[in-house]
């Protein structure tokens, strides 16, 4: 669905990506994680064809992204971090804009608005910022494009809305659809994404499903005096640790701990994770 090959891009003299390679498939919800300023938004803009690569290519659905052909645009919905909506109601917005997306479903949009508790007949500009974001997320889901990109979608959402967001996005994933969600608030993607992408120091240093990660690593609290871990942080009752999964047991991936370990340049962890099939290495 998405094939990025040797992508180099930056602003001015500041290079953000250096021959970055990445392949993403349909039927997955990818979580794009990275520190502030790592370049998550910029990478998403490259995928959406909103930024011109210095070199390399970004191909989406067989077409070069930056050409932004009509067939490409019909199958892409991009929710940027900051959204600006017109002074019309959600219903009017769907009537005037929905037809750009051949698979847009008005009924689904109305149901999603109801799920998010958004009034359908109030001007979008009179909604709170969180409500506007939810309305736009609902529109993006109802557009039913094969590629849905969301840049920090949970910013501005209250806690119940974050849970609702996770539930709604998870419920609309199909084998035909690829969803990419960026965040620096790792916990917001818990129980939603199936594959983790970590963007760090110019590269995608991890592109792996949670299942694959669970096969290699265990996550959990171990005694404070234990030295048998790959990465650990202090915990009230010991150490919150990542250990090697040597006995095929299953533990839920603690994405925050994993992310912290990776950005702290934990080479043992990265080597272990990269034993098979990763895109690039530090
Ligand atoms: N239009 C621009 N012109 C110049 N520099 C930019 C522009 N947009 C982003 N940058 C810079 O590029 C770097 C990456 O920005 P980007 O917004 O892609 O990061 P991010 O990972 O999404 O960060 P955050 O988590 O804070 O949203 C930052 O150093 C930023 O200042």
UniProtKB/TrEMBL annotation:
Organism classification: Bacteria, Pseudomonadati, Bacteroidota, Sphingobacteriia, Sphingobacteriales
Organism domain of life: Bacteria
Species in which this protein is naturally found: Mucilaginibacter panaciglaebae
UniProt-recorded name of the protein: ATP-binding cassette domain-containing protein
Pfam families, sorted: ABC_tran (PF00005)
UniProt-recorded Gene Ontology molecular function terms: ATP binding
Record domain ABC transporter: where: 2-226
Gene3D superfamilies linked: P-loop containing nucleotide triphosphate hydrolases (3.40.50.300)
Keyword annotations: ATP-binding, Nucleotide-binding, Transport
